[in-house]
Amino acid sequence: MALILALWTMSTQAQSQPTNLIPAPAAYSELLGTISPNRLEALRQKVRISEKALRRRLEGRELADWQMKSAYWLEVGRKGVKIEAADEEGVFYARQTLKMMASLDSSVACCTILDWPRLRYRGMMLDVSRHFQGMDFVKKQLEMMALLKMNRFHFHLVDNPGWRLQIDAYPKLTKLTAWRPQAFFWDWEKDEIGGPFVEEGSEALRPEGKSAPGAYGGYYTKQDIAELLSSANERHIEVIPEIEMPGHNYETRAAYPELACSLPGGGKDPWELCPGKESTYQFLEKVLLEVFDMFPSQYIHIGGDEARKNNWKLCPDCQARMKAEGLERVEELQSYMIKRMERFAHAHGKRIIGWDEILQGGLAPDATVMSWHGTEAGLQAIKEGHDVIFTPTHYYYLDYHQDPAQFRPVGRLVSLEKVYSFEPVAKSISEADAHHVLGVQGNLWTEHVQDAWHAEMMLYPRIFAIAETGWSQAERKDWSGFERRATALSAAARKWGYTVYPPSQQP
Ligand code: ACM
Ligand code: ZN
């Protein structure tokens, strides 16, 4: 009985969470004494990188290799801070914890923390095609991601309203489509048909470019990308670029009309590349080679969503390709394209991620699926032995409104509590398959989100909930505790200069 009581006391102590940390750590134990936040940051840090030492702290808990890399043990005492980790990455996360502690609590309790991530992929996606965001904005969000122990930044760089990445082999992509006359996306796109673009360097642009009246847009140069990657690397964040195919390519066709189907005007649907023509693959491969050179990420996102495929039923090149490859349905033609691009990616040491439509017509053998329509496609992909990132619209689409009274409410109501309630490892997933749940991601699409103020208000505080779901152990999740902690972190984030919903004023 005494032993049971002692074990019970230990476990409740380890579970107490008197700090405001997000994500909640795996184990927290309070020690005697407190420290002022100012002193905490100035305390001497004793860092030890040793897998053996960390294993002792773990007391027999078995972690996967990727978890060991990120895990850390931290002791905050009145005289100093001790950090033990198996890798620099763990030290980095321990320091993020200290940084957050120093900002959230008026007095920090001396404590020990033992912590490791639940899921490998803890992501945020930003769409910079509908509305462009500059370097400072992106770097600022990387900083917050790191503090939240998020580690994947999915960069939605190209889409119908503008190509936003320098590609030397195809300069017209940015020269002809990175700028447009209307600042607000919906003033440009009417009835799902995109509007005109403004050529870079033309009269409509001021000499200094960006934000000129009569021209809106921008793009990232290779130097910009190198600078962003350096910022991301320091924060242990992998940047995954997305190059959309075959749909969402209105802008590509505006720059290179020969990539459309061989139909009058390129066909009725203005969004798609022709998967029949060999020249389409030559284009994509050349673009990807430059993208691979710029981004060292393990993954390349190839899009794959929302291609209507109507043109392909009529296009002689598509029909010839289908006949030659023995394909019966246009879905199989899309699958042919994705599988072919996967082989190309593999030949260059990369793996592909695609939106869940890539299941239609047959999944590419090694593809990772981003499950967005809901979770069913993701669950199916897991059954087929694939890795999945869950980003379901009704929980993780951060363009959807969090409150009907907010500025420009669109989509379904996705409140903070709703975001927090998503459980990525569904009960139907067997223990043996659970490792295929690679992780979670919040998506900020920007059709309605024009500026930094609006973008941050959509990200925060909801991304806090996604960070906790990705990092914290399932048994640590607790809505009422999280709500309290999210309020404290929101106040701190406002002090750091972020707009957090509800913002103090509307525009
Ligand atoms: C998507 O929302 N079309 C992936
Ligand atoms: Zn075609």
Characterize the main sheet.
8 strands, parallel, barrel
Quote the beta fraction: 15-25%
Arithmetic mean of pLDDT: 93
CA radius of gyration is 24 Å
Secondary structure category: alpha/beta
* Count of strand segments: 17
Secondary structure: helix percent: 25-40%
How are the strands of the biggest sheet laid out side by side? 6-7-12-13-14-15-16-17
Pick out the low-confidence regions: 1-16
| Ligands | acetamide, zinc ion
| Overall form | globular
Number of DSSP helical runs: 20
CA(first)-CA(last) distance: 62 Å
Short structural summary:
The protein has 507 residues and is α/β, with parallel strands linked by helices.
Secondary structure blueprint with pairings:
Blueprint lengths: L1 H14 L11 E9 L1 H6 L2 E5 L1 H8 L6 H6 L1 E5 L4 E5 L2 H17 L3 E8 L5 E7 L7 H13 L4 E5 L1 E2 L2 E2 L8 H6 L1 E2 L4 H4 L27 E2 L4 H13 L3 E8 L4 H6 L22 H17 L4 E5 L6 H5 L1 H10 L4 H18 L3 E5 L12 E4 L4 H8 L4 E3 L2 H4 L19 H5 L16 E8 L7 H8 L2 H10 L7 H17 L12
Parallel strand pairs: 2-4, 6-7, 6-17, 7-12, 12-13, 13-14, 14-15, 15-16, 16-17
Antiparallel strand pairs: 1-5, 3-4, 3-5, 8-9, 10-11
The structure holds acetamide and zinc ion.
The site of zinc ion has 8 residues, from helix 12 and helix 13.
Please describe the structure with a list of short key phrases separated by commas or semicolons.
single chain; 507 residues; alpha/beta; eight-stranded parallel barrel; five-stranded mixed beta sheet; 20 helices; globular; disordered N terminus; binds acetamide; binds zinc ion
